[in-house]
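Lab notes, practical 5.
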Amino acid sequence: MNSTTLSPAMLILLVLIIVAMGVVIWAVLQKKRTDQLRSRFGPEYDKAIGDHRDRRRAETELEQRAKRVAKFNIKPLLPEDRTRYAEEWRHEQSHFVDDPRDAVHQADTLVQEVMQHRGYPVGDFEQNAADLSVDHPRVVENYRVAHEIAARDGEGRASTEDLRKAMVCYRDLFEDLLGKTIDHRQEVRR
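Output from the prediction step:
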């Protein structure tokens, strides 16, 4: 028998080892992908899994969001813009006492204005939320909560306490977009 010839059993064993190594490498890469997405998207990762009920589809969607947002020219605000927006927020927050509904509406408008100024396209709410989830995954749920309350208010089904919660949710997102904590001495009360 020639020493360079493999027996059929050895050939099968070699193929099985190569296949097993391929499976292990694939599994390690999938775990790495999952860990990176979970780390990047935080709670938004779990929401996507819940929405899709399929890890692979959810992860693909999250990657597509990241690719979409990577094409945007997202930029931080200049210090003077941050200061101006923070002042506008304080005005809306104090306006809440006199007209909670209008203050919530104006808070939503101000959030969209900051998004646009930073370089996010503003349009459909669901797309706005998906885009924000890439860079602001820990507060995008606040945006959804505030938007849902504002929608209920449009139907006359939101209480003043609901509107207060919406303002707080908008504020958390707003601060994250601004990259600055706003003075809360004029907390939203009614």
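Observations recorded by the TA: The chain has a mean pLDDT of 90. Residues 11 and 41 are 45 Å apart (CA to CA).
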